[in-house]
Amino acid sequence: MQVTVYSCRDFDEKVYFEKYAKELGITLVTCPDKPGMENIKLAEGSECVDILTTPLTRELVEALAAHGVRYITTRTIGYDHIDLEACKEFGIAVGNAPYGPNGVADYAVMLLLMSIRKAGQIMQRSNIQDYTLKGLLGRELKDMTVGIIGTGRIGKTVIQNLSGFGCKMIAYDKYENEDVKKYATYVSLEEIWEQADVITLHTPQTEETYHLINRDTIAKMKDGVILINTARGPLVEADALLEALESGKIGAAGLDVVENEFELYYYDRKNDVLNNRELALLRSYPNVVVTHHMAFYTDNYVETVVADSLKSCVCFMQGQDNPWQVS
Catalytic residue at 207? Predict the structure, then answer.
């Protein structure tokens, strides 16, 4: 059995690919680059390909099918970067690789604490030996109401993590979780907008959640609300966010994801003029912390997604029950 692995990183993933390929009896074809028409031939002889978050367009899906690929696994929880309709049309099944919730949940709490204590600004000043206090007055989490949107595995873990801080927590999800009710009260989205001092997003990107945070919803929020997003960039309308930050309606933001980040993150782009003006503006604001979609990135994550992506290929090829297959 052969699997072609695209975007394979030598510095952290390759050792685990070699380990689990040997255990599972898989022959690997690895490529450090994202899948594209220029390297699609590497999939020849592989009925399964293993990818990361780069977009798989209809053109690429058709080309993969022409080379005999029947299964695509992505080493991510989300799979919105894959054209599922094209996969269905060309007879290719798709799987993902969910990882443990703790890494992202920890990171979300870190961004939240950095935002309410103005840690980004503090570090900027320290770098130029400005040790003044003016403008750095923070808030204590125990005095705040945190609104959590999405109480799946990650959102629930964030709530558990925050339970030790003594803050009031309100939550929204279409499907309520009894464990969450030990720490937080479920409310409507309207109540989240009206009551929360901090809003943290942990919901998947769907047609329903696209631009969930927009001009209309922001207008309903408290003045100075703090926004945390470690989920998906398109949950937040970029222009509306910029306007709200500039007006002070949003007092601070901690963002691990932004709109239009595909083809941008995970590459050395220091000498490039980036085609994402919103990101450039966000990075210029002293009350915004922006990181490059890496909340997931822990040692546990790397080993888990590599192992599970290969196991899902084995399940598919052997016709076994495949807990990772999504379409």
Answer: no
pLDDT tens for each residue of 43-94: 999 999 999 988 999 999 999 999 999 999 999 988 989 999 999 999 999 9
Q: How does the average pLDDT of the chain come out, rounded? A: 96
Q: What DSSP assignment string belongs to 119-158?
A: HHHHHHHHHTT----TT-----GGG-EEEEE--SHHHHHH
140 is known as an active-site residue? no
How many CA atoms lie within 13 Å of 87's alpha carbon, on the beta-carbon side?
23
Concatenate the DSSP letters of all residues of 72-120 into one string.
Answer: EEESSS--TTB-HHHHHHTT-EEE-----SHHHHHHHHHHHHHHHTTHH
Q: Which domains does the chain have, with CATH numbers?
A: 2-99+298-317 (3.40.50.720), 102-290 (3.40.50.720)
Strand partners, 4: 29, 49
Contacts of 173 (CB under 8 A, 6+ apart): 149, 150, 151, 152, 155, 180, 186, 203
For 110-138, the pLDDT digits (tens) are 999 999 999 999 999 999 999 999 999 99
pTM here is 0.91
pLDDT of 14: 96
Q: Is the pLDDT of residue 312 over 90?
A: yes
At 230 the three-state DSSP class reads: coil
Exactly one of 13, 232, 237, 259 is catalytic; which is it? Answer: 232
Q: Is-catalytic flag, 85?
A: no
Query: Which residue out of 261, 263, 292, 303 is catalytically annotated?
Result: 261
d(CA 79, CA 14): 22
Task: At 224, list the tokens.
Answer: 């100075």
